[in-house]
Amino acid sequence: DSGVTQTPKHLITATGQRVTLRCSPRSGDLSVYWYQQSLDQGLQFLIQYYNGEERAKGNILERFSAQQFPDLHSELNLSSLELGDSALYFCASSVRDRGNTIYFGEGSWLTVV
Amino acid sequence: DAKTTQPNSMESNEEEPVHLPCNHSTISGTDYIHWYRQLPSQGPEYVIHGLTSNVNNRMASLAIAEDRKSSTLILHRATLRDAAVYYCILTHQAGTALIFGKGTTLSVSS
Question: By CA distance, what is B33's nearest residue in A?
């Protein structure tokens, strides 16, 4: 158990819909990261937040957005969903140690039908 | 970010040592070498990291070349549960997101 909690674990929704994925980081971790993993794309970094502010952006689509709240939990919002958005979405949080060790949650499986 | 090169796949037998190589010829002086692994249907899992010196922990050992242009993750006795994709990643100082490559798929046979 990494200490990173993601909900929901599984989600099935229709094209065009909007979903929100939630992440609770490890206690005390200020950084939250979101990743997308699909069969053909591998693990793709989407976005990072640090103490409520956006820190880095990766391959995140404009239809996707995220935020980190004062209690440090984070949400990833996916809108106008397409079939290709079906993937496993991971949240991770990090210890601000030298080298930046990152701990991942178990992921949220999103299926768009 | 500096790149890493890993073999696509490797095979091992149970209870034998496994040496997973990683080349990172463009590594900078402040880059840490991280290894993560991902078991099927699970999130990536931290294995080990180091900067210059060899490192050991309960999961594995990390051997870093003197010029730091390559490193080797050593699993001392492979088990079936070690079958996973292993990623070698370079990171800057604290606060940088991990950028994953394709990693090495390790198969372990009994």
Answer: A99
Both tokens of residue A14?
A: 């229709």
Q: What is the predicted pLDDT for the residue at B21? A: 98
* Residue contacts between A and B (CB atoms, under 8 Å): 70
CA dihedral A53, A55, B49, A59 (to 10 degrees): 120
Contacts 24+ apart (CB under 8 A), A26-29: A26/A2, A26/A93, A26/A95, A26/A103, A27/A3, A28/A95, A29/A72, A29/A93, A29/A94, A29/A95, A29/A103
Residue A107: its chain B contacts at CB < 8 A?
42-43
Query: Which residue in A has a C-alpha nearest to residue B93's C-alpha?
Result: A99
Mean local confidence (pLDDT), B22-43: 92
Residues 6+ apart with CB under 8 A from B2: B24, B26, B27, B28, B31, B90
**A63, A78 contact by CB (below 8 A):** yes
CB pairs under 8 A, 24+ apart, for B50-56? B51/A98, B51/A99
B2 has a pLDDT exceeding 80? no
CB contact under 8 A, B94 and A2: no
Task: Provide the 10 A C-beta neighbour count for residue B78.
Answer: 20
Q: Which of B88, B71, B49, B65 is nearest to A98 (CA)?
A: B49
Is the pLDDT at B97 greater than 60, yes or no? yes
